[in-house]
């Protein structure tokens, strides 16, 4: 059994994979999974999530994509060493892996989460162009052509980042603004509920709601434009182009898009399963 870990900027997701992962890791993720928000209590969170993993068998290996701060990476490594005497494999982005070619001039500079998602996408839809949209703290829209070449992509701030940047750089203050647009309260991540409401409006009637819905519309518009431009390029050599969406805010953004997307929440973990399986061959 392999333990797969996707440590992002705000959340850590994990799953276990049984041996012999197939292309994209589709059937390799066996349902033992979890997720939690990253905070100062990382050691306690890992213990709470993974204490039962040794029953009936402990992981034989640990594979991780970690773009989180260094202390998160260290906590994962310490837990694997202390609990299972395992040295975790923190993946990096090579020039070529699992049939996917990295188009960056400096391959290792590509984020490991983006690389794992591309590996999963390319193996789920072999010989087809795929656009991979990851909507989280940052938004990435990446283009993979029908030969398995990663052509490049774009990165821009996510919903939370846009709100935070606007408030930092202007006199807009949201804390004292009563919400009159049907949102109110906070979601499980502590964000204003209306900020992750898929029915975004362009006629908000409070400053708080105007910022929240504006950020949603800005992200959706940016994703749509990037998809359209990448699709035009990718379809020159193949008529079909899949669009996959992943990341913590994918489900909220997807209904706002004009492009048709397929949500795959565990895309990075699927890529890790494929990478781990190939390494064992």
Task: Characterise the protein shown here.
The protein is α/β, with parallel strands linked by helices and 281 residues long. Helix content is 33%, strand content 23%. It has 7 helices and 12 strands. The chain has helices spanning 42-50, 70-84, 112-124, 159-169, 207-234, 250-253, 267-280, and strands at 2-7, 11-17, 29-37, 61-66, 89-90, 96-97, 100-102, 130-135, 138-144, 149-157, 242-246, 262-263. The strands form 2 sheets. It has a 7-stranded mixed β-sheet, with helices on both faces. A 5-stranded mixed β-sheet has the order 3-2-1-4-5, with helices on both faces. α4 (159-169) crosses α5 (207-234). The longest helix is centred in the C-terminal third of the chain and has 28 residues, at 207-234. The two termini are 15 Å apart.
* Radius of gyration based on Cα positions: 20 Å
- Average pLDDT works out at 86
The strands making up the biggest β-sheet line up spatially as: 6-7-10-9-8-11-12
How many strands in all?
Answer: 12
Span between N and C termini? 15 Å
Q: What is the 3D form?
A: globular
Report the biggest beta sheet as strand number plus sense, adding barrel if it closes: 7 strands, mixed
Supply the helix-strand structural class.
Answer: alpha/beta
Low-pLDDT stretches are: 20-27, 176-197
Beta fraction: 15-25%
Quickly list its features.
5-stranded mixed sheet; 7-stranded mixed sheet; 12 strands; alpha/beta; 281 residues; globular
In brief:
The chain is an alpha/beta fold. It has 7 helices and 12 strands. A hairpin with a 2-residue loop joins strand 8 and strand 9.
What is the topology?
Layout lengths: L1 E6 L3 E7 L11 E9 L4 H9 L10 E6 L3 H15 L4 E2 L5 E2 L2 E3 L9 H13 L5 E6 L2 E7 L4 E9 L1 H11 L37 H28 L7 E5 L3 H4 L8 E2 L3 H14 L1
Parallel strand pairs: 1-4, 4-5, 7-10, 8-11, 11-12
Antiparallel strand pairs: 1-2, 2-3, 6-7, 8-9, 9-10
Helix pairs in contact: 1-2, 3-7, 4-5
């Amino acid at each position: 059994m392999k333990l797969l870990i996707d440590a992002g900027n705000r959340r850590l997701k994990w799953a276990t994979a049984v041996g012999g992962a197939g292309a994209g890791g589709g059937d390799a993720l066996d349902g033992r999974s979890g997720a939690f928000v990253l905070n100062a209590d990382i050691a306690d969170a890992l213990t709470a999530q993974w204490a039962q993993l040794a029953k009936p068998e402990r992981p034989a290996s640990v594979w991780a994509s970690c773009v989180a701060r260094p202390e998160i990476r260290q906590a994962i490594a310490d837990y694997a060493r202390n609990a299972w005497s395992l040295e975790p494999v923190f993946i990096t982005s090579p020039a070529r892996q699992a049939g996917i070619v990295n188009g960056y001039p400096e391959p290792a500079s590509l984020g490991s989460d983006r690389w794992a998602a591309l590996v999963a996408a390319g193996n789920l839809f072999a010989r087809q162009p795929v656009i991979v949209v990851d909507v989280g703290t940052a938004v990435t829209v990446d283009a993979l052509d029908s030969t398995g070449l990663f052509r490049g992509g774009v990165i821009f701030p996510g919903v939370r980042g846009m709100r935070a940047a606007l408030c930092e750089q202007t006199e807009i203050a949201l804390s004292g603004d009563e919400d009159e647009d049907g949102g109110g309260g906070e979601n499980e991540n502590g964000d204003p509920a209306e900020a992750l409401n898929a029915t975004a409006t362009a006629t908000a009637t409070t400053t708080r709601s105007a910022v929240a819905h504006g950020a949603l519309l800005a992200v959706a518009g940016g994703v749509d434009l990037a998809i359209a431009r990448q699709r035009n390029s990718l379809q020159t050599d193949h008529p079909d182009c899949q669009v996959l969406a992943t990341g913590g805010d994918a489900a909220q953004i997807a209904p706002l898009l004009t492009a048709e997307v397929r949500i795959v929440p565990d895309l990075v973990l699927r890529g890790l399963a494929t990478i781990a399986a190939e390494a064992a061959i």
